[in-house]
Amino acid sequence: MSFDPKLQKSEPQLALRYVPESEGEAASSQPDGQRRILVLGATSGIAEATCRLWAARGDKLFLVGRSADKLNAVAADLSVRGASFVDTTAVDLDDCSRHAEVLSHAVNALGGLDVVFIALGVLGDATEAEHSFAEAQKILQTNFVSVVSLLTWLAGYCAQRHHGTLAVLSSVAGDRGRKSNYVYGSSKAGLSAYVDGLRNRIDREGVSVMTIKPGPVQTAMTEGMKGSSKFADVETVAATLVRAIDKGTDVVYVPGIWRIIMGVITHIPEFVFKNLNL
Ligand SMILES: NC(=O)c1ccc[n+]([C@@H]2O[C@H](COP(=O)([O-])OP(=O)(O)OC[C@H]3O[C@@H](n4cnc5c(N)ncnc54)[C@H](OP(=O)(O)O)[C@@H]3O)[C@@H](O)[C@H]2O)c1
After folding, report:
1. Does the beta carbon of 71 sit less than 6 angstroms from any atom of ligand 1?
2. If DSSP codes are grouped into helix, strand and coil, which group holds residue 13?
3. pLDDT at 33
4. Max Cα distance, the chain (Å)
5. Which of the four pLDDT bands, split at 50, 70 and 90, describes residue 9?
6. Could you tell me if 82 and 58 are in contact, meaning their C-beta atoms sit under 8 angstroms apart?
7. pLDDT tens-place string over residues 44-69
8. Would you kindly state where each structural domain of the chain is located, as residue ranges?
9. Which residues contact 119 (CB under 8 A, 6 or more apart)?
10. What's the CATH class of domain 29-273?
């Protein structure tokens, strides 16, 4: 099945580097069981730990991040761990004009797509973002706008083939706005709503769309935060995510206890919540 550029009117350059299926792409999983996995924001602590597990299974990985040096180090490690194919592209994903080109290149390199793992994200400076729109915009751009741009292309690609899993890292922070971090929280609330809606549109096309909501995890993003030694271990989180992505679970709280915690938090009346220091 070839890609229909009419479905991607906003990305006219899409077809330029796309190799039609007949020239090497298979819509469904590889017969050898190795999955073709595209990781966006691949130098993230959570992505790296997850990729290590996929590499050990012999999966094929295409890594996209903004630092070539970090990507090379991750790619070398994943090759040693058993990945049957690893390739990388360094690009700042805030530049949405590059998305069609990067995604087409990744699809061509992998020979199709089984799983996409979207992990890019920034915490930003919450205090600065209260007063500086430039800081707020940076957070919204990376966590929401850039991911929507990536998913617009990827959803079209997967829906046309009736195949693929789109696994997106949002956050429990998106479940309720809190005074301490509402700009980051709103970027993730927007993302969760977008991903949920996308799932409801294309699930019937045979595409799994997953909203992943981690609680606090020990990675570079949370390093030095108060209480960070008690945050979830990234290897444990990765193992949960690999299992959930295999199943194509719709909404994943990780660790699972966060489903209950957020269930409670979202039910606290606003007149009480606004007086809490959360
Ligand atoms: N850690 C947590 O407690 C936690 C909790 C809930 C949700 N999450 C979400 O989970 C995801 C992964 O987080 P993490 O903890 O693994 O954080 P991390 O280690 O800080 O990773 C974030 C990644 O995003 C990449 N990135 C940021 N802006 C980018 C851009 N414009 N273009 C390309 N890559 C970009 C970073 O690249 P560089 O390496 O170049 O900086 C980094 O690899 C994020 O979306 C985060 O919001 C994390």
Report:
1. no
2. helix
3. 81
4. 61
5. very low
6. yes
7. 999 999 999 999 999 999 999 999 99
8. 29-273
9. 39, 40, 41, 42, 44, 46, 47, 50, 169
10. alpha beta
